[in-house]
């Protein structure tokens, strides 16, 4: 409740919408939105009009507004946030919450209308290989604009907070991304792909260069492992790099594309011998949280973000960015099954309170109430 006893109204924008679940931001909006509604907050989510054939006004207590976008690969996201921001500024919402640092410049619109704002800026977008040239420059500029035009910057890891302080001289509030741990998951769904429990290594993520699937595939194929390497994920568009990767021939390699059924995905995580995490840029990674929540032994690329998430080696081993290092870690993992067992047994304890969705929601609510109170 607001200070005057009326319901706090929060508008959320910058992702695909609700109840759409495809990426990390969409998942966050669902987990956060539903919990805020349960706490008596009026939540409005701005949905991409073209993605929703049916357009109900309320879903599970969340108000959905369907705004248009300029439908091109580069402009969809930004134009959608622009239209949503204008709509929200002309409405009676108390606080506007935006996700994605690419939406940094739009904070100026809210500033003109004196609407309090918060933005979750997430990873180092400008370093990702997919944004070459102008794209990279835009993301870095947009992230800088976010630090100037929004009232509250939110990062999801301590390392990311350090980066923003160093680069843009701006402090941010750290609120981690949440996880949903599951204790026991039946192995039946993996039979669909003729897989056996503990008989495969797993990669989950978009097939883009910065997730380093190619590095892991090359290193794995150099190893003497008899297990399979299962790769879950794809890209939603035609892409030369991912097509080339999918054409690598080896009986141990298994590309299974997108897995949308949550039970199938849970089973793939829970029953892998080890989960490979090659994500290079960004803070708290949802795929890594799933791996911890499903009790995986984890082999991660050695980055400051992955060190932070695995508590500096307490919950997994690290490999370097070269195929030989991947080969060695595969062979070491197979030679030490008892180490893999102990990582599996301790994985869920790595999901400390900071990754609990209820706790995450409490922290966001605190931010929104502070902003509305100003």
UniProtKB/TrEMBL annotation:
Q: Which residues form the Glycosyl transferase family domain?
A: 196-348
Q: What's a Pfam family this protein contains? A: Glycos_transf_1
Which GO molecular-function terms appear in the entry?
Answer: glycosyltransferase activity
Q: Which InterPro entries match?
A: DUF1972 (IPR015393), Glyco_trans_1 (IPR001296)
Q: Which residues form the signal peptide?
A: none
Entry keywords, A to Z: Transferase
Residues of the DUF1972 domain: 9-179
Q: What is this protein called?
A: Glycosyltransferase involved in cell wall bisynthesis
Please name the taxonomic classification of the source.
Bacteria, Pseudomonadati, Bacteroidota, Cytophagia, Cytophagales
């Amino acid at each position: 409740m607001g200070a005057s006893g009326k319901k706090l109204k929060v508008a959320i924008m910058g992702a695909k919408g609700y109840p759409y679940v495809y990426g990390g931001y969409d998942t966050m909006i669902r987990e956060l939105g539903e919990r805020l509604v349960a706490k008596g907050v009026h939540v409005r989510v701005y949905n991409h009009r073209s993605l929703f054939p049916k357009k109900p006004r309320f879903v599970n207590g969340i108000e959905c507004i369907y705004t248009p976008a300029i439908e091109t690969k580069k402009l969809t996201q930004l134009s959608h946030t622009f239209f949503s921001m204008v709509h929200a500024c002309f409405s009676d919402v108390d606080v506007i919450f935006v996700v994605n640092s690419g939406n940094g410049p739009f904070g100026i619109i809210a500033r003109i209308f004196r609407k309090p704002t918060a933005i979750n800026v997430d990873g180092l977008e400008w370093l990702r290989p997919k944004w070459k040239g102008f794209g990279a420059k835009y993301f870095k500029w947009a992230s800088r604009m976010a630090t100037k035009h929004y009232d509250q910057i939110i990062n999801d890891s301590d390392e990311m907070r350090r980066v923003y302080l160093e680069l843009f001289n701006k402090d941010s509030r750290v609120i981690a991304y949440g996880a949903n741990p599951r204790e026991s998951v039946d192995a039946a769904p993996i039979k669909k792909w003729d897989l056996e429990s503990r008989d495969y290594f797993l990669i989950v993520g978009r097939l883009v260069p910065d997730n380093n699937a190619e590095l892991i595939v090359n290193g794995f194929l150099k190893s003497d492992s008899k297990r399979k390497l299962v790769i879950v994920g794809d890209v939603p568009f035609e892409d030369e790099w991912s097509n080339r990767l999918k054409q690598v021939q080896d009986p141990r390699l298994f590309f299974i594309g997108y897995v949308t059924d949550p039970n199938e995905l849970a089973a793939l995580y829970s029953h892998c011998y080890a989960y490979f995490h090659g994500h290079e840029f960004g803070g708290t990674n949802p795929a890594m949280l799933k791996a911890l929540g499903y009790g995986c032994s984890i082999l991660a690329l050695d980055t400051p973000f992955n060190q932070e998430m695995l508590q500096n080696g307490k919950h997994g081993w690290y490999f370097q960015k070269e195929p030989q290092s991947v080969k060695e870690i595969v062979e070491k993992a197979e030679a030490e099954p008892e180490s893999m067992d102990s990582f599996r047994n301790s994985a869920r304890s790595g999901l400390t309170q900071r990754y609990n969705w209820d706790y995450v929601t409490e922290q966001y609510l605190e931010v929104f109430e502070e902003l509305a109170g100003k």
